[in-house]
Amino acid sequence: MDIDDKRIEVIEVDFLKSETLKNIPKDITGAYYLMHSMSTAEDYEDSEKKCARNFSEYIEKTQCKHIVYLSGLVNEKQLSKHLSSRYQVEKILMECKIPVTVLRAGIIIGSGSASFEIIRDLVEKLPVMITPKWLYTKCQPIGIANVLDFLIFVLFKEQAYRKDFDIGCDDVLTYKDMLLKFAEVRGLKRTIFTLPVMTPKLSSYWLYFITSTSYNLAKALVGSMKVEVVCRPEDLLQIKSITKIQPFSYETALQRTLVKIQSNEIISSWKDSFISSRNDSTLKEYQDVPKFGCFTDLRSEEYDNREACVNRIFQLGGKNGWYGQ
Questions:
Q1: How far is CA 45 from the centre of its chain?
Q2: Where are the domains of the chain?
Q3: What pTM does this model have?
Q4: What is the CATH number of domain 5-285?
Q5: Which residues contact 289 (CB under 8 A, 6 or more apart)?
Q6: Strand 173-174, strand 138-139: pairing
Q7: Are strands 138-139 and 163-167 parallel, antiparallel or unpaired?
Q8: 3-state DSSP: the chain helix, strand, coil percent, rounded to 5?
Q9: pLDDT tens figures, 50-100
Q10: How far apart (Å, rounded) are the C-alpha atoms in residues 77 and 136?
């Protein structure tokens, strides 16, 4: 579907800097809260709370009638640092004068999801995996298309106001199950062994060195992977009845995602979602060029100024477009 650019207005603010929020328009009727910070720093909990408070304070000054927050499954009594931070944001948003609906999701299957990209990296790169014991932790994934369905259809549904709902497909799987099913869908033969002695720190380094994730993000995710993230059945039934959405299976979510990846329909990934990235000239220092699963066209050309050359390369795309012959 073509989108009319004239109907879209982009307004850039930084919710960690309250002075920038004056740019937020007043004529807002609905808002989605999708901000997470766990890949940026060790103290991301404080950043996420500050973002939520600033958002709540300023959204109340608008005409907004409903807020929808995409959170993580937080049904265990002892939560990881990552999931605990999500829950704290929930509580802050729920104190807002505007009705809030919280949708809690586990692993989201689709490009743009760090957890999915890690699964893809591991299976594509490693024929044999020596893995931590948390691979037997149960989780309930959901396809990214279904997440978007829930986000869209729950907006302005009064029966969902000031409530939280778990969303997921009907498949309850271990992380090992998910890796092996990905391999099956990709037509790859993979063998997985688990070790009971792999510490969280070692697990984090394992993900960091094998996959495209940063160490901070790997550390946060490992902490959560020891916690079961399974939907509450009554929540899933209720949100299905409100929205009339029946999520498709994990296998179908994989197939749909891989079709889009293979047909080059993915325009963005979690790895390029940096704050104010268009204005960050040092972005290249944090980007890792993928080395696996890629076709490489290697050419050489002499240059006089390395810095100018590298800057030119990292300006490709976006408004600058792509060079052609």
A1: 17
A2: 5-285
A3: 0.75
A4: 3.40.50.720
A5: none
A6: antiparallel
A7: unpaired
A8: 45, 15, 40
A9: 999 999 999 999 999 999 999 988 776 666 676 778 888 999 999 999 999
A10: 19
